[in-house]
Design goal:
This protein is of the alpha/beta class. It is 39% helix and 11% strand. α14 links the parallel β8 and β9. α18 packs antiparallel against α19. The longest helix is centred in the last third of the chain and has 20 residues.
Length: 445
């Protein structure tokens, strides 16, 4: 790791570091077991010594499942500014057509196909190209300027959090941070912290903006062998993010959730994007032991009438019952750790942006706004300059009342609109007019 990338401090105790680390390892090894009258709990609960570097802080996370560290607290501001997105080092996203990358295919300039083992895909030429681009200076050539995560810096290095857990898990997170800081393109020593994939294209809804309600099929659901192939990634994996279609429509995926694999890797958390139709109280009880880190609920509406018009699935009262049961479970158990209500902004629901944010606020959950992709059912407002300017203004106003990450994403969507208006681009996404795209601002906010 280049020394210039880190704050330079003179450390008078550097010569004793190796001895201290060896002593710490010996003390951990000698600590009493979990059945020794609660003595181990007292050892674990003791406040660790103040770390001298982010590496010390990360190393202290071993076997401390509820502890977290932000390496940015130790890293130099200029380095943080040069890492606007960490996803090429932390995340692998798979699509049902075998395209892959670090993020949504709609925000990649040239999505790449790959087959074979998951680690081979993580280390593919396409992923190496993303790392090289995000470690360089200036706008990344691999990314479309319409990416709100890049514009909003919601996945920048200054937001990366390292979690405590088993030694192998902590070691992989440390190696990932090392790779990001060094701008390591090959990333041969790390495995992804997050794996994202679609469980199936099938969906039991027919939302105005999404084709999977008509074109989706259970014939493409991931087979049991796919979940068996996760084994090499699990020791170092922080999160499985599962999408669709409707992911919970896949019986194989539901069996995986309830099976022994996740139970044996308690540090692995699960994130779902779901319409919540399958989240009945009975199904929630079946998966009570799954550590759901984040559930993103595709509501797309703040009222019964708009929900029926946009989602064209179950009734609002039934979904409302599922959400209330989910929120009660979270209040009682702490899981899922986070819930977010998501809205794809359409002609049919633009009048409810503020009401949607208010609904999320009343329910004590996060909120996500997304620009529409393509123009199914003539629902994209991206041909209307006045509507685009109005939505951008309203998103910025709404963002003022959101928490930091949600606010960054909302402002990122507004920036995409501003950029397209400035360039006179009045057509649906994902066509970005890449040859005339404005540079993406990479400075820290």
């Amino acid at each position: 790791m280049p020394g210039a990338d880190l704050p330079q401090r003179r450390d008078p105790y550097a010569a004793l570091a190796a001895t201290g680390e060896a002593l710490a390892r010996a003390l951990r090894a000698a600590a009493p077991g979990p059945d020794d009258g609660g003595v181990r709990a007292a050892v674990d609960a003791a406040a660790p010594p103040t770390p001298r570097s982010w590496r010390d802080a990360v190393d202290a996370l071993v076997d401390r499942a509820d502890a977290t560290v932000r390496p940015a607290d130790w890293l130099a501001p200029d380095l943080l500014a040069r890492r606007p997105c960490t996803l090429p080092w932390t995340r692998l996203e798979l699509f049902l057509d075998d395209l892959h990358g670090p993020c949504c295919v709609d925000f990649q300039r040239r999505p790449a196909a790959a087959t074979g083992a998951l680690l081979a895909r993580f280390r593919s030429p396409a992923m190496r190209a993303f790392r090289a681009a995000l470690a360089g200076d200036g706008p990344p050539a691999t990314c479309r300027p319409s990416c709100p995560r890049l514009r909003g810096r919601s996945d920048a290095l200054d937001h990366l959090v390292v979690r405590g857990g088993p030694a192998a898990f902590v070691a992989n997170q440390r190696a990932v941070v090392e790779a990001i800081v060094a701008g390591d393109v090959d990333a041969a020593a790390i495995t992804p912290l997050e794996l994202s994939f679609a469980a199936t294209s099938f969906c039991n809804y027919d939302c105005l903006m999404c084709r999977w309600g008509v074109d989706g099929t259970l014939a493409d659901e991931r087979p049991a062998a796919f979940y068996d192939a996760l084994a090499p990634l699990l020791p170092g994996l922080a999160r499985l993010e599962v999408l669709g279609g409707e992911p919970l429509a896949s019986p194989v995926f539901r069996d995986f959730l309830a099976g022994p694999t996740l139970a044996a890797h308690r540090h692995v958390r699960v994130a779902l994007t779901t319409n919540a139709s399958y989240l009945t109280p009975t199904e929630q009880a079946r998966h009570a032991d799954v550590r759901f880190e984040h559930l993103t609920i595709s509501l797309n509406a703040a009222t019964d009438a708009t929900y029926r018009a946009v989602n064209r699935g179950l009734t609002w009262p039934r979904i409302r019952g599922h959400l209330d049961a989910l929120r009660a479970r979270r209040a009682a158990t702490g899981w899922p750790r986070a819930i977010t209500y998501s809205m794809v902004m359409l002609r049919a629901n633009l009048h409810e942006l503020e009401a949607f944010a208010a609904l999320a606020r009343r329910d004590g959950v996060g909120v996500r706004f997304m620009l529409p992709m393509r123009d199914r059912n003539d629902q994209s407002f991206l041909r209307d300059a006045a509507a685009m300017a109005d939505v951008a203004r309203r998103l910025r106003a709404i963002a003022d009342d959101l928490d930091d990450r949600d606010a960054r994403r909302a402002r990122g969507e507004a920036e995409v609109l501003d950029d397209r208006l400035a360039r006179g681009v009045l057509r649906p996404l994902p066509d970005d007019g890449d040859d005339v795209a404005a540079p993406v601002r990479l400075s820290r906010r």
